[in-house]
Design goal:
This protein has helices at about 45-55, 75-90, 100-105, 130-135, 140-155, 170-185; strands spanning about 5, 10, 30-35, 35, 60-65, 90-95, 120, 160-165, 185-190. The relative contact order is 0.15. Strand 8, helix 6 (about 170-185) and strand 9 form a beta-alpha-beta unit. The chain has one domain (about 5-190): Alpha-Beta Barrel (TIM Barrel), CATH 3.20.20. The chain is α/β, with parallel strands linked by helices. It contains six helices and nine strands; from the N terminus they run E-E-E-E-H-E-H-E-H-E-H-H-E-H-E. It has a seven-stranded mixed β-sheet. A two-stranded antiparallel ribbon has the order 3-4. It is globular, with a radius of gyration of 16 Å. The structure holds iron/sulfur cluster. Iron/sulfur cluster binds near residues 18 and 21.
């Protein structure tokens, strides 16, 4: 399934691939979200996504997520977002693991300026060692530092930046992540396990 509704939002499932293998990932436990199977046989083109979305005016937000890491489909995010902004002035969010600049080897965040209204970045841990233990990034412990730098860049180009943790980590770690978010000057949200 490429698109699905949750609450007042429309979610776009761009890929099943990811640079992490988080122990709490919903992919490890389920075939989808809200009873919808999100395993896809082939990744949708921008044209296919635009066609399936149709007129999104009734939604509060259009959210690029995945049953995987959406920024791995950067070109499709940009093309679909340009279409949605130009034709519908949609409010657009990306939910990401924040490793986009590591993936592309350059700063991709300026590309989001004027297109993406909100970005939700999974911080997940208070330090690089914990992050790697929990998320098993293909970039090793460098991933955590890459995520922090990505968040700083997002602040420059995206109106609303929120970092998240899942409540599988100890409460004191959650508080340390809240402090990191405060120092970075971005929003903070605790997500519930199974409710990611
Ligand atoms: S970053 Fe997200 S999609 Fe990727 S493994 Fe972790 S929870 Fe799953």
């Amino acid at each position: 399934m490429i698109t699905y509704e949750l609450g007042n939002n429309l979610y776009i499932n761009l890929t099943n691939r990811c640079t992490n293998k988080c122990s709490f990932c919903v992919k490890e436990y389920s075939d989808g979200i809200g009873g919808q199977n999100l395993w896809i046989e082939s990744e949708p083109t921008a044209e296919e996504i635009i066609k399936e979305i149709g007129d999104p005016s009734r939604y509060k937000e259009v959210v690029f997520c995945g049953f995987g890491e959406p920024v791995l489909r950067l070109e499709q995010i940009l093309e679909v977002s340009r279409h949605l902004k130009k034709n519908y002035r949609s409010r657009i969010r990306i939910n990401t693991n924040g490793q986009g600049n590591l993936v592309y080897g350059r700063n991709i965040v300026p590309l989001f300026e004027g297109l993406i209204d909100v970005i939700s970045v999974s911080l997940n841990a208070k330090n690089a060692e914990d992050y790697q233990r929990l998320c098993k990034s293909s970039y090793g412990e460098e991933a955590f530092y890459g995520v922090i730098e990505f968040i700083k860049e997002c602040k420059q180009y995206i109106p609303e930046v929120v970092v998240t943790v899942v409540d599988v980590i100890p409460p004191e770690d959650i508080e340390m992540c809240r402090t990191i978010a405060g120092e970075l000057g971005v929003g903070f949200k605790v997500r519930h396990f199974y409710n990611v």
